[in-house]
Amino acid sequence: MSPPSPALAVSGVRKHYGDVRAVDGVSFDVAEGEFVGILGPNGAGKTTTLEIAEGLQEPDDGTVRVFGTSPWPRDPALLPRIGVQLQASSFFDRLTAREQVTTFAALYGVGQARADEMLELVGLADKADAPEKKLSGGQRQRLSIACALVHDPDLVFLDEPTAALDPQARRNLWDVLREIKSRGKTIVYTTHYLDEAEVLCDRVAIMDHGRILAMDAPARLVRGLEAATHVTLDTAVLSLQTAKSLPGADGAETDGVTVTITTRTPAPLLAALAERDAVAGLTVRTATLEDVFLHLTGREYRA
Q1: Average confidence (pLDDT) over 61-77
Q2: 3-state secondary structure of 119
Q3: Candidate ranges 22-31, 86-95, 112-121; pick with highest mean pLDDT
Q4: 137-149 vs 167-182: helix axis angle to the nearest 10?
Q5: What Å distances lie between residue 208 and 97, 112, 293, CA to CA?
Q6: Which residue has the higher pLDDT, 225 or 143?
């Protein structure tokens, strides 16, 4: 029995603007029901890749298939199956939040009840009668997501959906995204929040300079880095000189308040600290997706 076709198949896609290679030979598949994140510095090519997959731009080379169909040129039969939330959205002047979502719903023949359900889902039920111009930036972001979901698409594209949200609203939106996935929907999104991608995504693709540098489950990417573990204690508990001499310690440094020990064999180090009764206030930091990201893309500032 042949495996099911992917919801999204991107193969050898390129998009150039003069000498700028915005997307430079990108290939990846997304299975139905999968939650995939695309991560990268500013200018990495994330948004252009999404716009090509959504059918908003034509690639210079390569192919894209959404449920087996090319999204370019625009295919009216395909549009009801995809939902799109862009980085920046424009709404109709003078309409309330409910009227905005209802208008989008009407384009797909969806009734008022579904619009109200989406406002509830994104936490805007209490703002349903508020004009869009009275909403905060984070509330407008959530309104944009409600509009993208109102017709119950099978594949959802979200471009930095949690940008401009405060920490509480961001965590609430995580629950929204989990709920969407639990309904069997496929999600492809971009984000700058690596902790978010590590928690939510089945797989992540790390992009830079228009190319995918790595793509796998977050935990596998972290394990593949083979990064050191950092153990931090208060200087009142352990001196820098003693820290350097402990079994398993590859190095140690202090900021005057704490001592941080670097190790690739944490078991003997932690055992030695326990023998010295030096575990009060101890913290252990293992590698994260952020370490993988910085390892692959570098640490220089990107405007």
Answers
A1: 94
A2: helix
A3: 22-31
A4: 10
A5: 37, 42, 10
A6: 143
- What is the residue type of 109? G
Collect all residues with Cβ–Cβ distance below 8 Å to 258 and sequence separation of at least 6: 232, 233, 234, 235
Structure confidence at residue 301 (pLDDT): 47
Cis peptide before 71 (omega within 30 of 0): no
| From-to residues of CATH 3.40.50.300 in the chain | 8-223
Residue 302 has pLDDT above 60, yes or no: no
Q: Which CATH class is domain 8-223?
A: alpha beta
Fold classification of 228-286 is: Alpha-Beta Plaits (3.30.70)
Average pLDDT over residues 235-259: 92
As given in the structure block, the two tokens for residue 188 are 């492809």
In one letter, which amino acid is 218? P
Q: Tell me if residue 76 falls in helix, strand or coil.
A: coil
CATH 3.30.70 segments of the chain: 228-286
Confidence of residue 70 (pLDDT cuts 50, 70, 90): very high
Cα–Cα distance between 33 and 175 in angstroms, integer? 16
Rounded average pLDDT over 50-79: 95
Which pLDDT does position 64 carry in this prediction? 97
CA distance 160 to 141: 10
Please report where in the chains the tokens 């993208």 appear, as a residue: 148
Number of alpha helices (DSSP H) and beta strands (DSSP E) in the chain: 10, 13
Return the closest-CA partner of residue 48 out of 6, 15, 10, 88: 15
Which amino acid belongs to residue 235?
T
If you search the block for the tokens 């609203």, which residue do you land on? 169
